[in-house]
Give the backbone structure.
Amino acid sequence: MNAFHLLQILLPDLTPKNSKLHFAITNGKENPLDVYYQGDFQEWQRQQLKRNFDRKYVVSFIAMPTPNLWLFAGVHLSDIPTQREDCIYYPLVEIRETKELDGRLIISFDKKNVDNKFVRQSYLLTENWVEKLNVAEVLAQALDFAKFPSFKSVHISFSQLKTIVKKSLSDWQSALSSVAGVYLIADKSSGKLYVGSATGEGGIWQRWAEYATNLHGNNRQLIELKKQFGDVHFENFYFSILEIADTHSSENEILVRESHWKNVLLTRQFGYNDN
């Protein structure tokens, strides 16, 4: 079934000529799917560098991890934008008639033109592409952040961590609060590593929540990193767990294991640890 035709059933006023398609992909700093999970996609989309939304409606899709699959993120009513210091701001308002499919409708769309060449643009005229918008799946419930996998499988970006903490996702909070342990932060921009530990009540959850709140977790080298490169640099961070322990383990036991991993990974010499 054609996805645009499905949307037209719910919103008859929607036409190819009065709408524009927005295929949201990473801007190099933020992944729009992570932003969507955080509940901030609409505000994120309102901030543009150019006058991209010059039609009545904006039909929004977000790139999913699987190539050519896109998550429907609403039909938005556009209006006259205002020029701000760092962006062109569109006061977009999501249309309620299609909201039931927001986060549920997944489409299949290959961004290749009639010459079979890949199109880089994220903002497309609907009439040129409408027939390529095919329904891949309609989920029973809106897509949400993945369930807690296992301690060995945890590998999340800083953006994902912020989503988990902001939403207090119960399965993640329950699991991470139940254990102390040693964790790893990897900076994908430099390859540098930081080994940290979490002890006592609240376990790893409490420690990681500090990073989600103040970025640096009160670590000296990470504080300096923030001063030098700003908040945006922390979007390069990935979090994983090296080993877990009972929250009643002594602080000294955990610190011994933390020191062991610092030695193994050479994070004092080449990473962000300085003790």
Observations:
- The chain has a mean pLDDT of 93.
- DSSP finds ten helices and 14 strands in the chain.
